[in-house]
Structures are given as C-alpha cells and as structure tokens.
Amino acid sequence: MLTVNELKNVKGKVIIVRVDFNVPQKDGVIRDNNRIVAALPTIKDLVDKGARVVLLSHLGKVKHKETPEVVEAQKKKNNLSIAAPALAELLGKPVAFCPETRGETLTNMVQNLKDGDVLLVQNTRYEKGEEKNDPELSKIWASLADGYVMDAFGSAHRAHASTHGIPSILKAEGKPVAVGYLVEKEVANLTRCVDVKDGDRPYVAILGGFKVSDKIKVIESLLKKCDKILIGGAMAYTFAKALGRTVGTSPVEDDQLDYARRCYNEANGRIVLPIDSVCTNGFENWTEKITTNDSNIPDGFEGMDIGPKTIALFTDEIKKAKMIFWNGPMGVFEQNDFAKGTIAVCEAIASLNGAFTVCGGGDSAAAVKQFGYKDKFSHVSTGGGASLEMIENDGHLPGIDVLK
Ligand code: ADP
Ligand code: MG
Questions:
Q1: Which of 176, 204, 267, 315 has its CB 3.0 to 4.6 Å from that of 271, i.e. a possible disulfide?
Q2: Residue-wise pLDDT tens digits, 134-143
Q3: Active site residue 362
C-alpha cells in the first residue's frame, strides 16, 4: 500500500484527499478542531510538493429519504463551509471553498487551481449517491483527479463514493492511490492489536460500554487473540445474569444471555467479570448509592460502575500486560459519581512501563481525553466505529483495502 510520503511527481497534479472534517459544531461554530488538525500533515505534505489539493469530507447526516424541507434544513445545518477558514488559519494560507458537490462551478474551480493551492468541496453527503457508493457520482469526482489520498480514518469503515468509489476508479485507471499520515498511523497501531506477536503477550483486552449486541464481533475477535478479557460497563450485567447472578434493575439484554454464557464458557477462564458494583436506585434521580459485596445486585438497584474490589482485580491483570486494547467505559463516567472505574483503568494503563497500549471507541477515547490520560497511551484512535470494525474484521476496512 502506497503512503502519501511515497507519492512522488505530484507537482501540478490534482490530488483528491478524503479527510474527516466531521467536526462537532453548533450554529456554524466549530467546538473542537482536532479532526482538522489531524489532517494537517498530509495536506501540508502535498502542498509542499506542489500538488493541487482537493479536499472531500462529510459533515453530519443528510437523510435524503426525508421531505425536501427536512433535507434542506439538514444541509443548512451541515454546511461544510465553516471548515475552510478554520483550515486556512491552521495552514497559514488561503483555502478556497466550492459550495457545489458537482457541476460547472466545481469543475472550473478545480481547473483554476495553481500548484500548492487547496480547495475544500461542500459536504459529500449533500449528494444522495455518496452513502450508496453510486458509480455515476464516483465517476464525476474521479474525473477531476490525477490521484487520491485517503486520510479519513473515521470514515474508512464505510464503502461510500468518496471513500471507496473514487479510489477504485482511479486505481483501475492506473492512477496513484495512497493512505495519508493519519490513516497510516491508525492502521499500524490497530494492526498490532489484531496481528499479535509473542513479545506483546500477555495481551489484555478491556471491554465495557453499553451493549453486548453492539460488540459481539469485537468480543469474538478479541477472544481469539487475547490472554485475558476484562469486562465492565453495562455489558457486564448481561454476562452476570447469564451466569445466574442477580442484577436488580441493571441494563440487561435478555436476547444475548445465551451468547454471553457460550462466550464465557468458551473463554475457559480468560473472561474476567466484576466482583462488586457501585449501584443506585435509579439512573438519574437516584437517592441511594450502595457498593455490593459480591457480583450480585439487590432488587431495585442498578449497577452504575465497577466497585473497588473489581478495580483492584482489573488493575492487577492490567499490570501484567505487555499489550492492552481498551474499548468501552467501565461505568456511567459522564456522572462524576460513577467515573471511578474508568479513571482507575486509565491510571493502571498509564502506570505500565514499556507496554503497548491502545484505546479505541468513541466514548472510551473521549473519557481518556477528558480525564487527561491521552498522552499516556501508545495510541488513542481518532475513529470510533472505524477502530472497532478494524478489530472486528481482523485489520480490514473497505476504505483501506481498496487502496491495496
Ligand atoms: P464506546 O463508544 O467507547 O465504544 P459505548 O458507546 O459502547 O462505548 O458505551 C458508552 C456508554 O456506556 C457511556 O455513555 C456510558 O455511560 C455507558 N455505560 C457504561 N456503563 C454503564 C452502566 N453500568 N449503566 C449504564 N450505562 C453505562
Ligand atoms: Mg459510543
């Protein structure tokens, strides 16, 4: 697979770069420009080489099945023009914006680019065909370019026109397609978690978050590769119930009980479950908070976080690890009272010496950042869903495989 670093002779060439500028925003104000910052190395590299850079990205959702009024409102809300001045400031040079996703305006703007110029195109999801990987749309976009770079890791698990259609056409035409610096780094780090070397054992996975059903494939993939899997968060209660423990009013997926039991048995002692819980008599307006003595939860209470004995048990297992993959918070970390388990896992991972440690998953990565541990990890993935699918699919993602 070619990397942007290896792309030579791009001076004067039009290179489409698929970036992830799906930034959190409200009323046209960008609340966090991390994703734009993350794309800078690739954009700068191409600018320095004299390429004519055309950036494509989606922003939010546009549901084309809704009424025309709703679609218009969604387009207005997700207008990508806000990213152009933000990028220009970070790059220290002007960034042109094309308000159209196809047609004469776009063609002219691309044709008028000079070497080293940067053009950002309107939200790819303004096009109905984007999420359908529509061949006609892909052809229109591909016809603008002499080459393609994929640097939108957060979108690499989707086979859309901008992530899959364009590079397949360009590749077939013998034009260069490559990964950008951000994707290269993500792939290298996450591949190490699925392609396990002896030196990386013991390999400990930590899983949490809300639903077992969201993560069945992740659990299965990790079961094949890990020496231990520590399970916390809400999903632990489905396992607890499956093993005959009482769970009170904790969130449980009854249709996953058989699956959880089978998994637990197949794991042969490698799945470690909580041995105590912090519980409340309600999710939000609770009045009583207790810590259980064991893995049973009394009637009328629901588990909100792992308890102190579980923290000690999990910390012990983490301390032995040479490699860690973590997905999913240990409790309702958004509420201060139930952030202890998640922070303790951060702390245990941070205190490891020389281990390779990765956190992937939207909410878990947000927790790691929020609690100030981002720099202590070998890698915190920028792609929520993409990082999980990379683990699930043994290192394969459609938006990356297409470049090989
Ligand atoms: P990720 O995005 O890291 O993959 P998930 O989306 O699966 O993680 O889950 C994150 C959510 O799970 C958080 O909002 C958190 O509050 C919730 N959660 C964790 N533990 C519990 C629990 N015991 N009860 C209810 N919700 C929980
Ligand atoms: Mg999530």
A1: 267
A2: 999 999 999 9
A3: yes
